[in-house]
Specification:
It is built from 19 helices and 20 strands. By secondary structure, the protein is an alpha/beta fold.
Length: 529
């Protein structure tokens, strides 16, 4: 890709043959809509309308919750082994249909084929983890009670009820389905609100789950713009899982709090990458290419700030710029392109506004910096900036596009301070040949996820470890034990085998108190399971 003017529009690729009109009509028929109208869901590469997506009214959403609660009453009584049997079948279907799922993801989001196929891998990975660990995590845990041998107290995991999942457009299948199946394993029903732009792949995921044996009605989907759908969804849910912007996360958290329900919020990031003096720059450059331009920069955990030691800045800059300028960027439904489109023309305009604001205030464009209408209505060049400051739009707020700023540092302490100089704390990356030294730096960075010699995949793909943000990047986490147990309430089932919790017949309360105090002393000295 060169820096010359681009005016002539290239020939747009043909929609995959698997994405038939019949399939699209079948999927959107799942969306309840009585009088909510429709929304034009487009193919990103061409801007052509694929299907009219029904929009759900508040009454439609309330009915969806009624149906979900009816189905959940039965599902929650299924033995866990029976629920997991459904999930094992779903796992096989997700893998078997990965190519069709990737077709739908590409059609609705415009991402390149690599990112689409990798997105299809997330729900099977999540299922693999929780199918193995759910029996332990959801099993009753029996403890001793206040009176040894005569009392017990058992922690029992009960499902929340109906979980509202609000999924983003950047990974619609991965987030929409992975968060939902975890809630389902715990015995809940789910009402999912995907983004209008990317509703097809999660609808397809629900179809596969029902083919695997999930009871109909247990997994509902409602569609509409956030302000129209969100309030009713939150007001009817027992718990909310949201992935998206910090601004919207605040609104959801406030409403969930008024309703006295829990929520998990994975929000925005301004993620830093710190390159140490001894790093292998060839490896760093390749890591940065994926970290900045993977999914066209539309990853919550992607890199928007790179900090380099002064002694190696020029060498990295030259290699990185050359690599970015040589990226294969275009619209295609095969594995050729290294970067695809942004999700929509509106989002492309946001990215352009960030870059133009930076340039107007003195930032220098080292690579890219412009839209590419010749490739499609929402394409933007891989962009590298230097001279970015915090008073610029792209210096402090999340751009969420293929744009990165390079910065110099003089000491490791300065690099850590710069990396932490943000309101966000979702992800970070540290690179160095001395892994122990790099890990020591990583521990000092204020982020919920920090990768050493990787950008984000090692952390996010580790399903046994929680993944979430700190500061304004979120509340709670997905993955790990809490990724499942957050969808449950803990019931304390206490049993008294013999009535000893008061004075015996004929015993004064004063005498009882003496015995009780003696018992407290004994309790301190006695090990109780």
């Amino acid at each position: 890709m060169t820096a010359t003017d681009h005016t002539a529009r290239t020939t747009a690729p043909r929609r995959p043959a698997s994405v038939t009109d019949a399939l699209l009509d079948r999927l959107v028929a799942r969306v309840p809509s009585t009088a909510g109208g429709t929304w034009k869901l487009t193919e990103v590469y061409t801007g052509e309308v694929l299907v009219e997506l029904p929009q759900s009214t508040p009454a439609d959403i309330e009915r969806a919750f009624v149906e979900a609660r009816r189905a959940q009453a039965e599902w929650s009584q299924w033995p866990l082994a029976k629920r997991l049997k459904v999930m094992k079948k779903a796992h096989a279907l997700f893998v078997r249909n990965a190519q069709l799922t990737a077709d739908l993801i590409q059609v609705e989001s415009g991402k390149n084929r690599r990112m689409a196929i990798e997105e299809t891998c997330d729900p099977p990975m999540v299922l693999s983890h929780y199918i193995k660990h759910a029996p332990r995590l959801l099993a009753p845990v029996k403890k001793g009670g206040p009176v040894p041998f005569l009392t017990t107290s058992t922690a029992i995991r009960q499902p929340k009820g109906v979980v509202g999942v609000i999924a983003p457009w950047n990974f619609p299948f991965a987030t929409g389905i992975s968060d939902a199946v975890t809630a389902l394993i715990a015995g809940n029903a789910v009402v999912l609100k995907p983004d209008n732009k990317t509703a097809l792949s999660p609808l397809w995921g629900i179809e596969m789950l029902e083919e695997a044996g999930l009871p109909k009605g247990l997994f509902q989907v409602v569609c509409g713009e956030g302000p129209d759908v969100g309030p009713t969804l939150i007001d009817n849910a027992n718990y909310v899982m949201f992935t998206g912007s910090t601004a919207t996360g605040r609104v959801i958290g406030e409403r969930a709090g008024r309703n006295l329900i829990g929520c998990c919020l994975e929000l925005g990031g301004k993620n830093p990458m710190v390159v140490l003096e001894d790093a292998d720059l060839d490896e760093v450059v390749e890591g940065a290419v994926f970290g900045v331009f993977g999914n066209t920069g539309q990853i919550c955990m992607h890199i928007e700030r790179i900090y380099l030691p002064e002694s190696r800045y020029d060498e990295f800059r030259d290699k990185f710029v050359a690599r970015a300028q040589g990226l294969d960027v275009r619209a295609a439904y095969d594995f050729g392109p290294e970067m695809g489109s942004l999700v929509s023309p509106d989002h492309m305009e946001r990215v352009r506004a960030h870059v133009e604001d930076a340039v107007a205030q003195g930032a220098i464009v080292l690579a890219g910096g412009r839209p590419r209408p010749d490739l499609g209505p929402a394409f933007f060049e891989p962009t590298i900036l230097e001279g970015v400051t915090k008073d610029m739009l792209c210096g402090a707020t999340e751009t969420f596009g293929p744009v990165v700023a390079l910065h110099r540092y003089r000491s490791v302490d300065e690099a850590v301070d710069l990396a932490n100089d943000t309101d966000y704390g979702l992800n970070a990356s540290v690179w160095g040949t001395d892994v122990a030294a790099a890990e020591a730096v990583a521990r000092r960075i204020q982020a919920g996820n920090v990768n050493v010699n990787d950008i984000l995949a090692t952390a996010f793909a580790s399903k046994g470890t929680p993944s979430g943000g700190v500061k304004q990047s979120g509340v709670g986490a997905r993955h790990g034990d809490q990724g499942l147990t957050k969808y449950t309430d803990v019931q304390n089932l206490a049993v008294l085998k013999k009535q000893v919790m008061g004075p015996r017949p004929g015993q004064s309360y004063e005498e009882y108190v003496k015995g009780m105090l003696a018992g407290l002393t004994m309790m301190r000295r006695t090990r109780i399971r």
